[in-house]
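To illustrate the input format used throughout this study, we show a single complete record. The first block contains the structure-token representation of the backbone; no residue identities are included at this stage. The design step must infer an amino acid for every position from geometry alone.
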């Protein structure tokens, strides 16, 4: 309020110049629209919301209009000022007044979630009143709307009872799909002994048993889900208290061990699906052996300084709108000693891709296909710049043809690829120097995509540099494949984790991923470009592929296309 307001209306099409007009009401008397420029200016000392019609007329007399709304907000935003609700006694008159501030009064209230039977909310006054005999814990979302239709909400819990209360948190620890579950529910107050029963929702199946003294046991379903149910406890004087519980059946937490560090992640899409109907979490907490190692709003991080040989247990919890913590997953990992040699499952890790998750050549029975994954996991087989890998036991061909190329996807399982400053990952292909000339190379290009979560690929931006004079592309010139393309540099046979010595094609993954979005990745996809099947990301130029008749690189079968030797992490 009392600040200068300026809005530029815009139009497209028709015949310039345009003439503008607006049907502003008396409440917007402090605002004017310049007919020639379409600029609306003014100020208001009070909040207002004024609907008007904006009309533009072109030089040919054609008119178009749009319904608009001029809104001037108050200095203070609308908020719910209550941070808790008073306890409601049983069989007593209840009178709770909800309060808000800011925005533009009058306010209207609504509640999401079930109030105890016998209690009602008056929408105009925000008063919860009535009398109830239903003891329990009732999570509510309170929403207030002001006169300008802006809203604010707060997640609060109403507790009703005369002393008897279930003390087990409503958010139960997550259980992995197919695993056995056991929980002993607890209560306090009232007159023991207590009797427990299921009074709402349902257990996963009939094999789940709740004993009279509050022990629930059963086997979790095979699919990830949230099991929601309501339990009621009754004491010796027939007082009751009910509470709704949520049990996540989930492997939501991803944990991958590496060299004295662990990559941790949780998919925001999966979290949203699992918690649908419960409100969006305000953040996440990860603990290692009970100690908090992460608290924030992200979806991934790297826990460093974890000793080799240790087996930490990680727990992931979502911070819910009411401040409670909903556990989403538990995962234990063992950190193996690392070596540049091929890893041994359960005994020794390595920095290389470990598994093939998808292999889609253009034709079956291609070169090296029968020896996947052994020939492309572990260290690169290229012995030196002039001795590239070439045996079927050392490489696999992805295939290429005019208009298409095959692909392969690999996963890192005993190490991560951490994103830090500089290059993060190196891809090795059997590049050959023609006649020993380093500036004349037989290259079969591939483009690279990486992912942390399955299917959520980030493709590295590519650039090829065709001749400026319109001459034919020289696909033997390594400078043609300028950026973001693998299959350009030969292997040297030296340390595969050191890009300054290893040869191959090393990539800074932050060029493909927004800064800070991912701290590590575990999947890589290599797509053989084929010839003119793809365009680069800089100039939209078609990516060309060698078609040397001595090698048949565009046959779409056999040894055509990108020949993968290995993939190595740099930071792992």
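Output of the design step:
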């Amino acid at each position: 309020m009392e600040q200068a307001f300026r809005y530029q209306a815009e139009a497209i099409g028709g015949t310039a110049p345009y003439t503008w007009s607006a049907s502003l009401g008396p409440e917007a008397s402090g605002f004017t629209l310049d007919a020639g420029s379409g600029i609306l200016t003014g100020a208001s000392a009070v909040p207002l919301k004024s609907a008007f019609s904006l009309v533009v007329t072109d030089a040919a007399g054609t008119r178009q209009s749009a319904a608009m709304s001029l809104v001037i907000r108050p200095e203070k935003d609308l908020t719910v000022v209550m941070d808790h609700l008073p306890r409601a006694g049983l069989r007593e008159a209840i009178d709770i007044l909800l309060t808000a501030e800011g925005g533009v009064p009058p306010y209207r209230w609504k509640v999401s979630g079930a109030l105890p039977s016998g209690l009602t909310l008056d929408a105009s006054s925000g008063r919860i009143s009535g009398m109830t005999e239903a003891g329990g814990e009732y999570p509510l979302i309170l929403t207030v709307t002001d006169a300008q239709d802006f809203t604010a909400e707060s997640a609060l819990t109403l507790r009703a009872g005369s002393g008897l209360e279930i003390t087990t948190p409503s958010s139960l620890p997550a259980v992995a799909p197919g695993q056995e579950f056991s929980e002993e529910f607890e209560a306090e107050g009232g007159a023991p002994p207590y009797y427990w029963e299921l009074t709402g929702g349902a257990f996963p199946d009939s094999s789940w048993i709740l004993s009279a003294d509050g022990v629930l046991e059963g086997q979790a379903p095979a699919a990830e889900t949230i099991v929601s149910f309501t339990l009621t406890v009754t004491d010796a004087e027939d007082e009751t208290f009910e509470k709704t519980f949520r049990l996540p059946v989930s492997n939501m937490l991803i944990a991958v061990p590496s060299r004295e560090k662990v990559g941790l992640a949780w998919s925001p899409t999966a979290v949203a699906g699992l918690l649908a109907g419960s409100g969006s979490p305000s953040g996440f907490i990860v603990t290692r052996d009970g100690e908090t190692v992460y608290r924030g709003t992200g979806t991934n991080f790297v826990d460093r300084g974890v000793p080799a040989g240790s087996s930490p247990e990680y727990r992931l919890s979502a911070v819910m709108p009411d401040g409670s913590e909903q556990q989403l997953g538990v995962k234990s990992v063992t950190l193996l000693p690392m070596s540049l040699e091929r890893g041994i499952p359960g005994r020794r890790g390595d920095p290389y891709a470990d598994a093939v998750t998808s292999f889609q050549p253009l034709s079956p029975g291609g070169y090296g296909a029968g020896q996947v994954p052994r020939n492309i996991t572990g260290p690169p087989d290229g012995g030196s710049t002039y001795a590239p890998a070439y045996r079927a036991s050392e490489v696999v061909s992805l295939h290429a043809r005019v208009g298409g190329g095959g692909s392969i996807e690999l996963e890192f399982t005993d190490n991560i690829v951490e994103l830090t400053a500089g290059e993060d990952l190196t891809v090795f292909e059997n590049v050959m120097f023609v006649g020993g000339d380093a500036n004349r190379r037989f290259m079969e290009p591939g483009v690279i995509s990486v992912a942390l979560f399955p299917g959520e690929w980030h493709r590295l931006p590519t650039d090829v540099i065709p001749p400026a004079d319109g001459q034919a592309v020289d696909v033997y010139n390594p400078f043609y494949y300028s950026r973001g393309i693998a299959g350009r540099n030969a292997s040297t046979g030296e340390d595969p984790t050191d890009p300054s010595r290893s040869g191959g094609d090393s990539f800074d993954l932050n060029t493909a991923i927004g800064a800070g979005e991912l701290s590590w990745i575990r999947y890589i996809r290599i797509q053989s470009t084929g010839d003119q099947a793809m365009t680069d990301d800089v100039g939209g130029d078609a990516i060309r592929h060698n078609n040397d008749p001595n090698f048949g690189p565009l046959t779409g079968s056999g040894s055509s296309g990108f020949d993968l030797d290995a993939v190595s992490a740099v930071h792992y």
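Structural context for interpreting the output: The first strand starts at residue 5 and ends at 8. The chain has two helices and 47 strands.
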